[in-house]
Each structure stands twice: as structure tokens, then as C-alpha cells.
Write a structure and sequence with these properties.
It contains twelve helices and 15 strands. The protein is α+β, with helices and mostly antiparallel strands. The protein folds into three domains: about 160 residues, Rossmann fold, CATH 3.40.50.300; about 280 residues, no CATH class; about 160 residues, no CATH class.
């Protein structure tokens, strides 16, 4: 085995893709300082899985990516591919040439390639285990490692010597085995804890079951008494209903009689209303005539007020004329006195006499004109008085006519008042009849309400009875559910106990799948074998193990694709062979020894006492346990096997069995 080719791209100083070919023998790389000789060694160490940046002369792993120069841009990925010639079969693989590749991106993600196929770092380390070629092996010795070998540090020398001696693989397996033992011990501790918890739950469920049983008995007694009470209440309500029905009939008859009376009263009321309407129509004509008369009276009163105002004005004028006549008389006296004085003075002053005469003549003329005006005023007063007398006569006639009309209106109003009083009496009679009808309807409604209340009470009693029956059914279902959960807890304990004790007996292939997962992507906790998914009680556990035989260690896959991937992984890692049971193919073809047969006399089928982990595993139990029966002893199993022959098999509670062409399995249980 030797290194035949090294391809670098973007690793440290190798920006361009670079390929180095190595021939068998010794190859020396010579060059000045800084040309990249050490980078080639670092690339070899990095490709075979080196994880320490310091071992690659870097601070971080991202430093191995080409960081660029003044003339070139930095790259986003570093890739190294190492080709090893496996001409002597040192590497545990069927290929004569093995190509290892590693890529690192700027975002920190990395990929490992084995013959251009993605793989894990663990796969590469397992491939070069004990070959001397590894990240920590002696195949790559750089400056400073000689000092470590020759130093007094025995641990460093021991690591190199163990790698050269080829025992690193076994030490690693030893560490893995110890780690598995620790995990198994932890599982055992967890199982003990679960067992304690389950026991506590079982005791609690037992107490709850006792309480539920007591509740069921009390509920039964309560149901019986409530039913008796409901029957008595039903009888009482039925009697009450009959009484109320008779009362309702009587009230209905009374309501019919009141209805007839009300109809008669309504007819009489309608007749009175028609009469009232006729009288109101006649009264309307009289009211129109009265309104017309009132309008004339108001118009005459307006004219009377106007005449009165004119008369008052004439009286004021007469008084004014009287005052003027008095003033004229006074003035006349003054003039006479003045005349006398003037006559006395006439002699003394002739000119003044002439002047006084002229004044006298003027005063006479003025007196005459005043007398003519007073006469005109007197004529106007006489005319006004005549008009006043005519208005007084007309007003007296109107007053007489008004009094006659008022008397007629009062008569009509008295007739209207009597009609209204009669109408009020009829309304009071109708109100009394309405009250009697309302009382009858109220009595009828009360009776109907009492009947409805009785019906509601009966329906409530029936509903309460139904609810109590439903509560009893729910309590019974809860008790059954608690029992099922208790059985499931017991099955879980049995399953965990069988899981802890089963893996050490399986083949290397099954252990590999159990540790790594069935498909690689599936978690190891999800791995199941036939023994993991089928369980039985303690008295039938040995019989189940004997019936399953080699099928107990077979892994269980949900689909054929998962089974094929598991087989491919076993082939790829060289872990041997294993039989995988495919659940979705059990309906098409089962791995059982034959179909189920009727239980012969002296035996019973084993399948009913076996509990699958889930419903999806029930077809698996049906297939593997078809034709398997439980016998009391090995002698009985042998006798039944001779009578019935294949494909039937007969197992005992101790794990012994007989079946097939002359097959007998037995011995001690441990």
C-alpha cells in the first residue's frame, strides 16, 4: 500500500488545481523556503482526518482555504483528494485503489468523500485503523515528532507503538464495549426506577379500582331508588294531570259561555255605536249652524264696537264743542266788556272807535261761523244717536236669536252627555266581561302551565335517570381503561427487561445495526428486533422465546426499502449478515412455518397470550406464532407433535418444545 496521487485545489498556497503523482519507493520534494513543501504534508494529514488547526500550522480550520493575493481573489472552498494503492489488501475493502477526499467551505461546513461517495469521518478513521496511516499515526512524521518519540513521555511513545502493533482497533472496541456496559447499567437503573413507579401506579390503580367498584354498587343502588322514586312521581303526576285535564275542560266550557255573552254584548255595543254615530252626525249639522250664528254674532259685535267707538267719538266732539261754545261765550263777554270800554274810550279816541268797530264786526262774523259749526256738530250727534238706537235694536234681536240657539245647543249637549253616560255604562259592562274572560283564560293558562310543569318534571326525571346511566357507563369504561393501562405498564416492564438481556446474545450484524441505527439516518433508540416488539407474561416468557427461536434476534423494518438499506450497510461495513423482517410484506408473504391451525385437545394457541408493542406489530405476531401451541409438559408436547406432525409446534412454559420431523428441544431453564 502506498500513496500514488495527491490533488489539491484551494488548499493554502495551491490556488489552482494541482496534481502530484507518487511512484512506488521514495519520493523527495525539494524547493526553496515558502514554496509549499510543508503544505503538501499538511494536505495529506488534513485529507486523512486531522481536526486540530495547530497541527496544520493554523489558528482556525478556515485558514487552510486560499485567502487570495494582490492579483487573485480568495476562494470559497478548499479540496484535497488522496489516492492510495491497496495492492496488498491492507485496507479492509475490496477496492485496489482508494480515493479519499475532503472539502471545507467558507461557511464552516465540510464533506468527506470515499471513492467519490460522501461518507463520515468515522468511516475514514475505521478504514485506516491499525494501518499506520492516520491523523495521529506514524505514517506522517514532521519536524518535532522525533523529539516526542525520543522524549521521556511514555504515553506518546505508547500511542505510536500501539498503532504500529495494530492493537488500537481493539482498545477502541474495548472503550466502546465499556461505554455500552455503562449505558446498559444506566438502562437497568432506569428499568428499576420504572418498575418502582409502575408498582406505585399499580397500587394506586388498585385502590381506584376498588373505589370504582364501590361507586358502581352505590350507583346501582341509587339508580334503583331513583327509578322507584321516578315511578312514584310519575304516578302522582299522572293523577294530577287527570285532575287538571278535568279542570281544563270545565274552564273551557265556562270560557265558551263567557265568549257567547261577550258576543251578545259586542252586538249591543255595536248597535249603540251606530245610534251614537247617527246622533253625532245630526249634532254636527246643529254645530255647523251654531258656528254660523256665532260668526254672525261676532261680526255684529264687531260692528257694534265700531258704532260704539263712533258714538264715543261724537260724544267727545260734543264735549269739545260745548267747551268751545263756553269759550265763545266767555270771549263774547270779554268782547262786550271791551266794547263798553271801547265805547267809553270812543269819545276819547275816534280812530280807536272805528278800529274797535271793525274788530267787532270781525268778531260777529267769527261768532256766526262758530254757531254754524256747532249746528253741524249737533246734526252729526243726532245722526249718531239714531244709528246707536238702530244698533241697539239689532243687537237685542241677535241676543234673542243667540239665546234661542244657546238653548238648543244646551239641549243637544244634554242628549250627548246622556249618550256618553250610556256608552260608558256599556264600556264598563264590556270591561267586566273582558275581565271575566281574562280570568278564565288565566285559569286555563295556569292549568296548562301546571300540566307543562308536570311534563317537565317527568322529562327531567327521565333525563336525570339517563345521565346517571351514562355516568355509570363512563365509570365502567374508566375502570376498564385503568385495567388496560395496568396491563400495558406490565407489558412495558417485561419489554424493558427482555430488551436489556437480549442484545448481548445477538450477532455482530444485529449489534452493529442496534448501535448505528437501522438505516444510518434512523436513531439507535428506534431500532427494534422481534424480541423487542413481542412480549408475554412472566409465566409465558420462556415459551415465547422458544417459539420465536432465531426469529427473536431479527431486526424489524417498516418497509422493504429500509430492509434493503440495512442489508446494504452490513455489506458496506463488512459486519456479516442478518435477517430483516419487513412489516408491510407480511400480508403478501409471511416468514412463518405455516398457517394457524385449530388448537388440538390438550393444548392452547400461544398467540392470545402474546402482547405486541403496538397494533402495527400484530401481523408479525400472527405470522411468527401461527401453528404454535402451548402444552403442559415436554412429554405432552412430544405426544401432540407425533399425533399432528408439521407444521405444528408445541412449547412448554419452561421453554422446551417438540415439532418438525423428529425435533426435540429441552434442558434446564438457565
Amino acid at each position: 500500500m502506498y500513496l500514488s496521487q495527491l490533488t489539491l485545489h484551494g488548499f493554502k498556497s495551491f490556488a489552482e488545481p494541482t496534481t502530484l503523482d507518487f511512484a512506488p519507493g521514495i519520493t523527495a520534494i525539494v524547493g526553496p523556503n515558502g514554496c509549499g513543501k510543508s503544505n503538501i504534508v499538511d494536505a495529506v494529514r488534513w485529507a486523512i482526518g486531522e481536526q486540530r488547526p495547530t497541527a496544520l500550522r493554523s489558528e482556525t480550520m478556515d485558514d487552510v482555504i486560499f485567502n487570495g493575493t494582490s492579483e487573485r481573489k480568495p476562494l470559497g472552498m478548499a479540496e484535497v483528494e488522496l489516492t492510495v494503492e491497496n495492492n496488498r489488501g491492507v485496507l479492509p475493502t475490496e477496492y485496489s485503489e482508494v480515493a479519499l477526499g475532503r472539502r471545507l467551505f467558507q461557511d464552516g461546513t465540510s464533506e468527506y468523500l470515499l471513492n467519490q461517495t460522501e461518507c463520515r469521518l468515522k468511516d475514514i478513521r475505521d478504514l485506516f485503523m491499525d494501518t499506520g496511516m492516520g491523523a495521529d499515526a506514524y505514517s506522517v512524521i514532521e519536524r518535532g515528532m522525533i523529539d516526542d518519540i525520543l522524549s521521556d513521555n511514555t504515553e506518546e511513545r505508547r500511542r505510536l507503538f500501539e498503532e504500529a502493533a495494530g492493537i488500537t482497533r481493539y482498545k477502541r472496541r474495548r472503550r466502546q464495549a465499556l461505554r455500552k456496559l455503562d449505558n446498559t447499567q444506566q438502562d437497568l437503573d432506569r428499568v428499576r426506577d420504572l418498575t418502582g413507579e409502575v408498582k406505585k401506579k399499580v397500587r394506586r390503580l388498585k385502590r381506584q379500582a376498588e373505589r370504582a367498584e364501590q361507586h358502581r354498587e352505590l350507583s346501582t343502588e341509587l339508580h334503583r331508588k331513583e327509578r322507584a322514586l321516578a315511578e312514584a312521581e310519575y304516578v302522582r303526576l299522572a293523577e294530577r294531570r287527570d285532575v287538571l285535564a278535568s279542570e281544563v275542560e270545565a274552564l273551557e266550557e265556562r270560557a265558551e259561555a263567557l265568549g257567547a255573552e261577550q258576543s251578545e254584548a259586542e252586538e249591543r255595543l255595536e248597535t249603540l255605536r251606530e245610534t251614537l254615530a247617527e246622533r253625532e252626525s245630526g249634532l254636527g249639522d246643529e254645530r255647523e249652524a251654531l258656528d254660523a250664528a256665532r260668526d254672525r254674532v261676532r261680526r255684529l259685535e264687531g260692528e257694534q264696537r265700531l258704532a260704539s267707538e263712533r258714538l264715543e267719538q261724537a260724544r267727545r266732539d260734543r264735549k269739545r264743542l260745548r267747551r268751545e261754545a263756553e269759550r265763545d261765550a266767555d270771549r263774547r263777554d270779554d268782547l262786550q266788556q271791551k266794547q263798553e270800554r271801547l265805547e267809553n274810550e270812543l269819545e276819547a279816541a275816534v280812530p280807536e272807535r272805528d278800529e274797535a268797530e271793525a274788530d267787532l264786526e270781525a268778531a260777529k262774523e267769527e261768532r256766526q261761523s262758530a254757531r254754524a259749526a256747532a249746528e253741524d256738530k249737533r246734526e252729526a250727534v243726532r245722526e249718531l244717536r239714531q244709528e246707536e238706537e238702530e244698533l241697539s235694536e239689532r243687537r237685542a234681536e241677535e241676543r234673542s236669536r243667540r239665546d234661542r240657539r244657546t238653548s238648543r245647543v244646551e239641549t243637544l249637549e244634554d242628549e250627548q252627555r246622556r249618550a256618553y253616560e250610556r256608552l260608558d255604562r256599556l264600556d264598563e259592562r264590556a270591561d267586566q266581561l273582558d275581565e271575566r274572560v281574562a280570568e278564565a283564560e288565566s285559569s286555563q293558562e295556569k292549568a296548562a302551565a301546571e300540566v307543562e310543569d308536570a311534563r317537565k318534571a317527568l322529562r327531567s326525571a327521565e333525563a336525570d335517570h339517563t345521565e346517571r346511566e351514562a355516568a355509570l357507563d363512563d365509570a365502567t369504561e374508566a375502570l376498564e381503561d385503568l385495567r388496560r393501562r395496568r396491563e400495558a405498564a406490565r407489558a412495558e416492564v417485561d419489554l424493558l427487561e427482555s430488551l436489556v438481556s437480549s442484545y448481548d446474545e445477538h450477532s455482530g450484524a444485529v449489534q452493529f445495526l442496534a448501535e448505528e441505527g437501522l438505516t444510518g439516518e434512523q436513531a439507535a433508540e428506534d431500532f427494534r428486533t422481534v424480541a423487542d416488539v413481542l412480549a408475554a407474561g412472566k409465566e409465558h416468557r420462556a415459551a415465547l422465546a422458544a417459539a420465536l427461536g432465531e426469529w427473536a434476534a431479527c431486526p424489524v423494518a417498516a418497509t422493504r426499502a429500509e430492509a434493503r438499506r440495512a442489508v446494504a450497510r452490513l455489506r458496506e461495513h463488512g459486519k456479516g449478515q442478518a435477517t430483516v423482517v419487513v412489516l408491510d410484506r407480511l400480508q403478501n408473504g409471511t416468514p412463518s412455518n405455516g398457517p394457524a391451525a385449530d388448537a388440538p385437545s390438550g393444548a392452547q394457541p400461544l398467540r392470545p397470550v402474546v402482547r405486541p408493542l403496538a397494533k402495527t406489530y400484530a401481523p408479525l405476531a400472527d405470522a411468527l406464532l401461527s401453528g404454535v401451541f402451548l402444552a403442559d409438559s415436554l412429554d405432552e408436547a412430544e405426544r401432540l407433535s407425533d399425533e399432528h406432525g408439521p407444521p405444528a409446534r408445541f412449547v412448554t412454559p419452561g421453554g422446551e418444545w417438540a415439532g418438525g420431523p423428529g425435533l426435540l428441544h429441552g434442558g434446564s431453564e438457565s
